[in-house]
Amino acid sequence: MELFILFSVLITLAAFFSYINVKFIKLPSGISLMLMGTMASLAVIITGHFSTGFSTIVKDKLALIDFSEFLLGILLSFLLFAGSLHVNVADLRKSARSITVFAVVGTLVSTLLVGAALYGLMLLFQQPIPIIYCLLFGALISPTDPIAVMGILTKANLSKTIETNIVGESLFNDGIGVVVFATLLQIAAVGVGNFGVGDIGLLFLKEAAGGVLAGLVIGFVGYRLMKSIDHFQTEILISIAMVMGGYSFCHYIHVSGPLAMVVAGIMTGNRGKALAMSDVTRDYLGKFWEVTDEILNAILFMLIGLEIVVVNFETQYLVIGILAAILLILARFISLYIPAFTFRFKNRLGTKTLAIMTWGGLRGGISIALALSLPANQYKSIIVPVTFIVVLFSILVQGFTIGKLIKRLTR
Question: Which regions span the lipid bilayer (predicted)?
Answer without folding.
Answer: 6-24, 31-50, 70-89, 101-124, 130-154, 175-197, 203-223, 295-313, 319-342, 354-376, 382-406
